[in-house]
Amino acid sequence: MIESAVESNFLVAHRLHRYERTCKEVYGHNFAVEVTISEKRLNKIGFGIDFLDLKNDIDYFLKRFDHKNLNEFKTFKKITPTSENMAIWPYDSLSEKINSKNIKIIKVKIKESPQFKANYYEEKKRQ
User: Fold this and answer.
1) pTM for this model (two decimals)
2) Residues 23 and 83 sit within 8 Å (Cβ to Cβ)
């Protein structure tokens, strides 16, 4: 089994609901999203997925949120757009598009800064 990862960035504003520190007001981040995949087999060139294809899929997902306020999206009207919650969102969406017999997304990491990161992965398929 081989693991590969691709990272992309997007700029967003958000605020944290029910949080009584400075993040209760709208503020911005330059988030990094790192998607890690497992590959069972490599093709004749020597990779399981082309990094450029994976980067394009990630960027396509992120572009509708780039330079927007996350709190205005339906997903984050009910849940707080913390890094932890934000890691689930691309995991689910990109898994539907990318997962195959040979390739599976195994983890999404959201980095809101070099010091603060959240990972999402599944030990087994959610019901």
Assistant:
1) 0.88
2) no
Measure the CA angle with vertex 75, ends 69 and 78; round to 5°.
100
Reference 13, options 55, 58, 57, 73; nearest CA is 73
Cβ count within 10 A of residue 17: 14
**Maximal C-alpha separation, the chain:** 54
The full 3-state SS of the chain, as one line of letters, equals CEEEEEEEEEEEEECCCCCCCHHHCCEEEEEEEEEEEEECCCCCCCCCCCHHHHHHHHHHHHHCCCCEEHHHCCHHHHCCCCHHHHHHHHHHHHHHHHCCCCEEEEEEEEECCCCCEEEECCCCCCC
Q: What percent of the chain has pLDDT over 90?
A: 65
Q: What does the block give as tokens for 52?
A: 């450029």
pLDDT digits (tens, 9 = 90+) for 35-53: 999 999 888 888 888 999 9
Q: Which residues have CB under 8 Å from 41's CB, separation 6+? A: 48, 102
